[in-house]
Design brief:
Helices cover 44% and strands 15% of the residues. By secondary structure, the chain is of the alpha/beta class.
């Protein structure tokens, strides 16, 4: 990587505020393994801890958006992100919500893979999602990367509350199926949190590098 770009990257990292939202809280219904061996909210929190540490080590400003009660588990993260948008500018804030997926139904189901979601339509979030998808594909080599190419890019789309109400680029990541036995066993490892976090860091660095090259 050229010296000038490295210098620009270091500078531009300091301009961005990264909001990390581990989805769900301990008293809120969320994905749970059929044998109760893993709860989604706990995995999300542990992965967020790893991700925050990695991002701070790269020089990013990192803000946790961790709700403590199910009554504000959606509104609190949005408020954190939007308050930062007013402070730093909405294009200098990036919102990342961490989740585990689940197939409807009781008992173990058959499904696997990683996916990333944005709101419907073409926005800056799509560019961020593509970069993080690229990071996941690189870091989590061999895992299934679920995507929807119907609109020409890899992200899946839905108007989830935390995505449609944030002012900044925002993505929601499903890191594996908690009620698939193989994905669940993988999610229970420390490796899963580290690789999930490194995937996001890799993607953010690609996204930031794109911004730096435009300067």
């Amino acid at each position: 990587m050229e010296v000038d770009l490295i210098t620009k990257l270091k500078s531009i990292r300091e301009e961005f505020a990264i909001v990390i939202n581990p989805g769900h809280v301990h008293n809120e219904p969320g994905a749970v393994a059929p044998d109760k061996s893993l709860q989604e909210w706990m995995w999300n929190r542990q992965c967020a801890d790893v991700l925050e540490e990695l991002l701070k080590g790269r020089g990013y400003k990192v803000f946790g958006a961790r709700a403590t009660d199910k009554s504000n588990s959606l509104t609190h993260p949005v408020k954190v992100a939007n308050d930062l948008c007013y402070k730093y500018g909405k294009m200098n804030v990036l919102f990342i919500s961490l989740h585990c997926d689940a197939v409807p139904g009781t008992g173990w189901q058959k499904a696997t893979g990683w996916s990333i979601w944005t709101t419907k339509g073409e926005t800056e979030s799509d560019k961020l999602a593509t970069c993080i998808f690229n990071g996941a594909q690189k870091v989590q080599s061999g895992r299934v990367m679920r995507k929807d190419m119907s609109d020409g890019d890899v992200d899946k789309e839905a108007n989830f509350y935390v995505l449609r109400n944030t002012l900044c680029p925002a993505v929601l990541i499903e890191n594996g199926f908690i009620n698939d036995p193989n994905d669940c066993e993988w999610l229970k490892t420390e490796t899963s949190k580290v690789l999930a976090a490194k995937s996001i860091v890799e993607g953010l660095e690609e996204y930031i590098a794109t911004k730096a090259r435009l300067r």
